[in-house]
C-alpha cells in the first residue's frame, strides 16, 4: 500500500489484530512511491502483491494487461489533491475567472508560460489538467516538469517554478511552508477515488481471504467514521514508522478530515447492479476514463496504453464486499 491515508487504514487494521481474529495475517508493505510504480511492479512480477489501492489515473494508464479487479473503495481524496503556487504569484490576483468555478484562482494570462512541477501519470497530474481546462488551457500552454512531491517542494524552495500539483502528505508541508492552493481536485470537479484492487487470479483462488481483508479494512473505515480525531495518535505512529518524521497533530487532523471513507452499506450501494444497469462505481470509472482520454491523451499515448482499451469497462465486482459483510459482523461481535 502507498504511504497515504489508505495505507494507514490497512496498517491500523493489522495493528489492531483484526486479520488474526479472522484467521489470517496481512503481509503489509508500505511504499513511498506512486500508483504507477505500484502497478508496474505487478506488471513485471504478478507475485509482487495480491491487493493494493491506487487512484484511477495509474490504474487506467499503467494497467496494460487487465489482470486486476476493483473490489472496493479505499477512500475519496479529491479534497486532498491540490495545485499550489507561490504566495506572491500573480495567479492569486484572479479568483472566479470562470463563473462556474468561483473559488478557483487563476487566469489564462497569469498561467500561460509558467512552470509547474508534478509527478506524471498520477492523480496530481489529472488535477492539474482539470485546473488548466477551467481556463481553456492545456499542458502545451505551460512548462511541465516531472517530479515527485518532495522534490517539487525542494525545487520551489530553491526559487524555480511557479507552482506544483501535490497530494497528501505533501499538501500539508506546502501549506506550512507558505505556498497557496489555487484549487483542489474537488473544486476543479476532478473525482479522485482510490480503489482497492486485487490480482484477478489470486482473488479467484482466494475469495474468502480477499473478503476477510476487506472486512478488516472496513473495520478501520468504521473507526474513522466513528471519530477520526481518535485516530490521531495512531496516525502519528504510522507516519513515524515509515518516514522517521514526527508529524504534528495538526497535520493528522488535516489529513484524516480531508479523506472521505465509505462503510460497507455505502459501498454495497455504490457497487450494486440492477438488471443490466451499470453500478455507480462503474459509471464513475467510465467518466474518469473519458476525462483522462481528453485531458491526458498525450501521456496515455506515450505510456503505450490503448485508447480503445480504456473505453472498455474494467473489471468491477461486489462479490467480495458481499461476503465481507458477514466477516465484518464477526469482528464487531
Describe, in short, the structure shown.
With 333 residues, the protein is an alpha/beta fold. It has helices spanning 5-15, 18-21, 35-44, 56-62, 108-111, 123-134, 149-157, 170-176, 200-205, 207-227, 232-243, 249-257, 264-271, 280-295, 297-302, 307-311, 319-332; strands at 51-55, 68-76, 81-85, 115-118, 143-146, 163-167, 180-184, 193-199.
Helices and strands in order:
Elements: H1 5-15, H2 18-21, H3 35-44, E1 51-55, H4 56-62, E2 68-76, E3 81-85, H5 108-111, E4 115-118, H6 123-134, E5 143-146, H7 149-157, E6 163-167, H8 170-176, E7 180-184, E8 193-199, H9 200-205, H10 207-227, H11 232-243, H12 249-257, H13 264-271, H14 280-295, H15 297-302, H16 307-311, H17 319-332
Helix pairs in contact: 1-10, 3-4, 10-17, 11-12
Describe the 3D structure.
- This protein is an alpha/beta fold.
- 48% of the residues lie in helices and 13% in strands.
- The chain has 17 helices and 8 strands.
- The chain has helices at residues 5-15, 18-21, 35-44, 56-62, 108-111, 123-134, 149-157, 170-176, 200-205, 207-227, 232-243, 249-257, 264-271, 280-295, 297-302, 307-311, 319-332; strands spanning 51-55, 68-76, 81-85, 115-118, 143-146, 163-167, 180-184, 193-199.
- The strands form 2 sheets. Strands 5-4-6-3-7 form a 5-stranded mixed beta sheet, sandwiched between helices.
- Helix 6 (123-134) links the parallel strand 4 (115-118) and strand 5.
- The model is unreliable at 306-313 (pLDDT under 50).
